[in-house]
Amino acid sequence: MPAQTHIPNRRFVIAVITLVLVTSAAANLVVTSKLSRSGEQLKDLETRAEQLRLDNQLLEQQVLSQQSLTTIQAQAENLGFQSRPTQLILTPDLPVALSRVE
Amino acid sequence: MYPRRLRLLSIIITLIILAITARLFYWQVMSADQLQAIAEVQQSSTVEIPSQRGRILSSDGFPLVANQPAYLFYAYLPYLEDSADTISQKIAPIISTHRQAIASQSAMTPEEIDSFELDIYHELMDKLSNPDIAWTPLQRNLSQESKQAIDQLHLAGLDFEQSQIRYYPEASMAAQLTGFVGSDAGGNPQGYFGLEGFYNLELRGKSGYIRQEKDASGKPIVVGRYQDIDSRDGRDIQTYIDRGLQFTVEKHLQDGLEQYGAASGEVIIMDPKTGGIMALASLPGYDPAKFRQYDPKLYRLPSITDTYEPGSTFKVLVVAAALEAGAIEPDERCYEDCAQPVQIGKYSIHTWNDEYNPGQTITEILQHSDNVGMIYIARKLGKDTFVDYLRKFGIGQATNIDLEGETTPELRDRWGDIDLAVSSFGQGLAVTSIQMITAIASLANDGALMEPHVVQKVISHDRVIDIAPRQVRQVISPDTAAEITKMMVAAVHGGEAQWAVLKDYKIAGKTGTAQIPISGHYDTEKTIASFIGFAPADDPKFVMLVKLREPTTSPWAAETAAPLWMNIAKEVFFHLNIPPNP
Known about the structure:
The complex is a heterodimer of chains A (about 100) and B (about 575).
Chain A: H1 10-67, H2 69-78, H3 96-99
Chain B: H1 2-30, H2 32-43, E1 44-49, E2 56-57, E3 63-76, H3 84-103, H4 110-128, E4 135-142, H5 144-151, E5 158-167, H6 175-178, E6 180-183, E7 189-192, H7 194-198, H8 200-203, E8 208-213, E9 226-229, E10 236-239, H9 243-260, E11 264-270, E12 277-283, H10 302-305, E13 307-308, H11 315-325, E14 333-334, E15 342-344, E16 347-349, E17 360-361, H12 362-368, H13 371-381, H14 383-392, H15 417-423, E18 431-432, H16 433-443, E19 448-450, E20 455-459, E21 464-466, E22 471-474, H17 478-494, E23 508-518, E24 521-535, E25 542-549, H18 561-575
Parallel strand pairs in B: 2-10
Antiparallel strand pairs in B: 1-8, 2-3, 3-4, 3-5, 6-7, 8-9, 10-20, 11-12, 11-25, 13-18, 14-17, 15-16, 19-22, 20-21, 23-24, 24-25
Helix pairs in contact in B: 3-4, 9-18, 11-13, 11-14, 11-17, 12-17
């Protein structure tokens, strides 16, 4: 008696192939959609990075402006500071009061 | 019948295949490059990554010149939704404010502002109503504030392109020293004059690019092709300029010009040990942020571009040369030769005050700034040795300072008796201020001539390149340098400028009042008054030149340049923590 070989059902094969195709198509759709959103996110991140660079530069500019000698001089004058007319130079000699203490 | 139809069909199919093949050959081979380029444009975007120009820093690392964002403001006419009139009315006041901030050197009246704004309105109307163009620039180098103001109007069809321009935290301080940035023939940033011009290659950066595939909406495709060429920022340069000193010097020079009624003035302070320029001011100056509004003559740095006859300040170099050559001794006395005016051919040479001091020593000749005494010294030195020492001091040669535009006045080829005589007291030959201070600095540096330098370091993102001080040559021995220093101290503390001297400090220096040559003769009224010196004389920390052109209160340096030198020196001593002599 010859051995019986199992021949898969033709409908079953078609169903598997269809399932694979549909699943692949769906997966492709999902991945494409995700990549599309990533592109948008990348663009947003690039814009944000550029804006932060710009903000940093503007802040640095403000700091430099505040630290400039012209600004400091103007603020000192507003606060009532004046240029000193004379200079006091301390010498290495002991002060008189201190030198008399034995 | 059947084979005939079949044959016809075969021929048609063959023709179609041939046509397709031919077309494909045209696309794939003949037009491949062109189509590839078109596809590249459609499928990829290229974004320029702008580079930053390097900054110019003072000795404490503070930027004298930095960068700031600016915008090219433009309109794309097909996308405009409002009328040209509406847009012009809305943005004219903003652009007017921006231009006033750049242009105005004095406040405008309300009427002038209205008129100015109306002109801008008409200018915008002309541009926005032009039917022959699609794109038009409306304002270059727009500030961040103005951009924000225009953004808030939400007008379609208007946009900005970011760029970088120079920012000067200390405004016009050291403007002629730093130079400015304009454009070259191709519209690219290019440094002109001073440091910007000399170090343009170091300062300018190189833009980078990002090229990537994009989708139909223009957004980048994450898994697409990506090419990245990094931008390279320009290198920073750190100078010897002491910001506080520069600020003080400019303020004093401005006061000095007003006090002495001078047409212009210069101050240079140099470290004699390194040749580093600690401060360099010249007035009148200009604002580098608005350089186009100033006379281009003001762009030049007179200390390196303008020549002058140095007058009596030159005498110290001649005496130093004569001492070094052994032609004279410090205590040597000049008798008959110093007793009356010197006659050379048709010329009679007198002292500045027509007083004569027979029997005076060499030190006293310098102290009295005696012209006939100087002729005595120059004659003993001899023409050839005299010229040889001038060249050793760098006279007639470029100092090679790292600034764009240095002028090098040449020494004459043939020297007659009269040339030797007048040159001995600093007339009849031309020098630049930087040549003069460099030569005098060698006396303060044990006789070693240093190359003057403004920049001490070039800084890139990964390394720092130190520019080491460079000794050009040993001109005179340390002993001769010490001897001439003593004479210069005597000239200051016992000379005609002694009334202005700071009593607590030992200062070596010399005044110089030079006549100005015009059309083959000397102007009888106008002079160049200068004072050059160094201190403390025993261990010099700085050498300074003060020069005033055409002072009107007095023609004499002892009454103008010398007191201004002392006023500035007082601040320098304090700033550099130099105590008075015990």
